[in-house]
């Protein structure tokens, strides 16, 4: 079809793909040609049909999307014959094919374009060959543990199994249906504010071109930098004016990382003012805290506006968010103690521990939900019961965007925006003590609310999660835990909860007793109870609630460290600092899980949760808790920094030099 300017639509698409960042554009005459290209490719491929009319920004967003390696364009148009319908959950395309063949209701239609990551290129080649042969590849059957793993596809579609192709008729539609059938993890790229349409005739082409022309692309991209669904405070008190800051930052050529660093400095300054105390300092700190949160939103918005994404930037943003929040807790805790209002460090430690354990459950529940979404509904056994009703109710509330129930659901869980707003308001109007108490009370209620509902829904979903990842890594086990025998009948969650109870009892007794120093010889007993958590390391983590194991182990280690510090009469700031280093280490693991990164380079040197606890217990028995905690904390901080430098700077530079040397020796330049 010819466009309004007279050039073929396919040629205009090719030019748009180049402007979107493609290094090379080729036309594949057949699906077999595409399979050959996928076999030879050494980088990700951006595949489109020749019937797509869209803003160039739509293709650029698809090419640079940070959500995952393989991403498909998804439109809200009604399904039509010959087009692939999709069912999407939590941003993932969990099913694709003819609308009548989906495992559930369709939530959109395939937009005729997808980016395929390097690791998924073999599946792309297999899907292309299958589609060319008129069959649909079939993934391997579900195993005893509920795993869905595609069979090998290197030998062609026959090795993956096949079924008669039905539904979608165009090549690119059959291609994405085949990818989904092979179990490929495909993320959805929705079109918002911009325009994308697939056209079939001259009239449809003219209408789509008119729709594209009617939208200011740059203005739409600036508005798209704001999250579509954010929390109440962020939506109405930050995002209403932060895009202006984003545009200014882009003109000043600031990077998202640079904005992140500035936001850390704002939070640090606010923490200092909270510690100084006095009404002017508290009000000034509240203002700086608010502005720091605005910048915390701006760094992500700037990344989306400029399309500057990187694994390093995402990791740094996650780590900086937690470091800023806990520095603020430290400032508030010091301010409480400095003003003589009570034991501020105890409150700060409690707030930090609570939020960290909450975040661990948040991360692992997200992994559980994603895993459940990727499985066929019949595989999860999820039907009926209270879990089914809770899931349906949650879906209805989330779909009712902007309603009172929608905002209540998003606010009651106490997200980061609401936490920072609560701190800023309470510290400016009252004092740091009221601020910390308010954070603890709301945080505890939110934890109880989310924990109860997620437990019910998880039992309904009945999907193992830790079976799909490296359980040893994310449990943070050391050599001792791996050496201990596995107590399989009890299950890893039961022994992890028992392990956390010992330190909890010791801490309560130490806080209520008149002479904590006299409890020094009870520390080994609490340690033995804690080490019981290692008895689940070798057991299968496939229970419906085993996603809670990492959080239970984190709680056990933190409680033991705090109890040892109290028994050994260590200063509050030292206990806070040690637990802070532990949280940084554990957030590193969860950030890597969320970003699909491998283990930190020096992970073995962190000794594991049980190794660190044994060293603290030895320090308590020797009567050197302060020295032991300071030394171990400093050691872990050095290991963390060295590991980050190795992971994000040294190894990438070394790999780049090796790649350059390979090219110099006659290697092939990737495209």
Automatic annotation (TrEMBL):
It comes from the Bacteria. The keyword Transmembrane applies. GO terms for molecular function: phosphotransferase activity, for other substituted phosphate groups. Gene3D superfamilies: 1.20.120.1760. The chain crosses the membrane at residues 254-275, 281-298, 420-449, 493-512, 519-538, 558-581, 602-626, 632-650. Residues 476-654 form the DUF5941 domain. Keywords: Membrane, Transferase, Transmembrane, Transmembrane helix. This is DUF5941 domain-containing protein. It comes from Micromonospora profundi.
